Amino acid sequence: MKLYGIPNCNTVKKARAWLTENSIAIPFHDFKKQGISEELLKVWLKQVCWEQLVNRQGATWRQLPNEAKAAVCDETSAIHLMLEKSSVIKRPVLELDGKIILGFDEAIYQTLFRKK
Predict the structure, then answer these.
(1) What are the angstrom distances between the C-alpha of 10 and each of 40, 47, 80, 96?
(2) DSSP alpha helices (H): ranges in 1-116?
C-alpha cells in the first residue's frame, strides 16, 4: 500500500488529510523527490490506459508546447513524458492490494478502507 503524488498538489493534500483524519497510515512517495520508474509506469498502464494516467487538465500539461502535446499519442510517448515531467501524472495514485486508484474521491476511499 502506497500513495504517490506531489505534496503541494491540492488533490494529494485532500487525500493525505482524509487518510490522517481516518487514522490510516500509508507511505507517501513524492514524485519530485523520489522520481518514478519506467517499470512502475508500465505496471500501472496494465490497469489504466495512458490517457487516464496523463493529467491533461493540470498546469504541467497546459504549459507544454503544442508540439510536445501532439507528440503524446501512444503509451510509449506518454511514458517518455511522465518520466521527463512526473507532475503530468494524474494524482494521487493510490496503490492498494495490487490495484491503483487515480485521483481522490472521498466516497471511494471510504469504501476501500472500510473493508480493511
Answers:
(1) 23, 24, 25, 21
(2) 10-21, 31-34, 38-44, 50-53, 59-63, 66-71, 75-84, 106-114
Nearest C-alpha neighbor of 45 from the set 90, 97, 84: 90
**Enzyme catalytic residues:** 9
SS3 state at 3: strand
pLDDT one-digit tens code per residue, 1-57:
999 999 999 999 999 999 999 999 999 999 999 999 999 999 999 999 999 999 999
Q: What angle (nearest 5°) sits at the alpha carbon of residue 3, between those of residues 31 and 58?
A: 55
Dihedral sign (CA 64, 52, 91, 45): negative
CATH topology (fold) of 2-114: Glutaredoxin (3.40.30)
Residue 82 C-alpha cell reads as 511522465
Q: Could you tell me the three cell numbers for 32?
A: 519530485
- Residue 114's pLDDT is 83
